[in-house]
Request: fold
Amino acid sequence: MVRCADKATSDKVKSTQISTMIFFDGDGKEYLRTPVSTADSVEAAYKKALEMYARRPVSWSAGDSATAGADGKKLVAMAFLDEKKDSEAFVASLEDRWVAKHHDRLTFVKVAFDRTSEECKKWGVTTAPTLLLVNPAEENPKKSILDQLVAKKEVSSIRAFLLRAFDKADRASKK
Reply:
């Protein structure tokens, strides 16, 4: 939220009305601008902002990894997880509001980690948690992997990983 008490700040956030609350996410991007005039409207603005920028559960795709990205428009995020605390922390980081705003660009697939399974061998996964970002348009599994995140569970690491992969995918789609 920004308080525009001076002209420079007002100009910077392009505030054209008096008594407007502007909310920004952790990346500095505006996600809500609403006029306020009473204490109730301020409270309603905070409530709406918290609802819009909140943690969201991961919507795991039904089916297997081969059919998850059939539409080809979204990257497939394959999460190789086990029952340990690191995997739980990893999923919690994926649900964090700083990462959740990117959920619409991904199709999530949860894969049970078993070092000896065909799926782990196919994708070259040797530890959990591992997140693979896969381009579903590429047919060769080894060439379709855009990037791989291994054993990281911090929100900042996951967010940075996703942003790098999105940038790489955007550049590849422009070629």
Remarks:
- Strands lie at 20-24, 30-35, 75-81, 106-112, 130-134, 145-150.
- The first strand starts at residue 20 and ends at 24.
